[in-house]
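Journal club side-thread
Mid-discussion, someone asked how the predicted structure for our own chain would compare to the paper's figures. Pasting it here so we can look after the session.
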Amino acid sequence: MDEEMLSMEKNKVWDFIELPEKEKQSITCKWIFKRKRDGKYKARLVARGFMQKEEVDYTETFSPVISVPSLRLVLVLILQENLHSYVMDVKTAFLSGDLDEVVYMSQPQGYDDGTGKVCKLNKSLDGLKQAPRQWFHKFQQFMNKVKFKQSTSDPCIFIRKEKCRKIIICLYVDD
């Protein structure tokens, strides 16, 4: 749990504030505990997104996912052109997405400082309805910044060509 909280602090996920009287209610959060294959345990803080109200706490939630035909095509390209392929996982992906809406959340259980303050979320958090969409936008901005071109046929494919090198990134958001 401490590791997760350090990650939240490092990513500046929230600021502690007094809940403005005229503002909406804060949502709550909970800890999810998972045992990994290596026997270690992982704690993840998850916002209770089901408490969010549409048009108040969020507007858009859609995030694209690579289509199966596009993925097959990329796999065929890898084989035909004898390319290298890698699978990666971004462990704290949702913590990097910037929020467009103002969302307040109660302090996490076990880490409440007793002041009655709430967390004003600056970044997306697992469980928020808009989390996948916000992360996709952040990823898309980064890919543009590092000169990748987004495919016109599938928004989850990014390509960069340099002299005799080709890099193809396929994005799949699984949460």
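Post-session note: The chain is about 20% helix and 20% strand.
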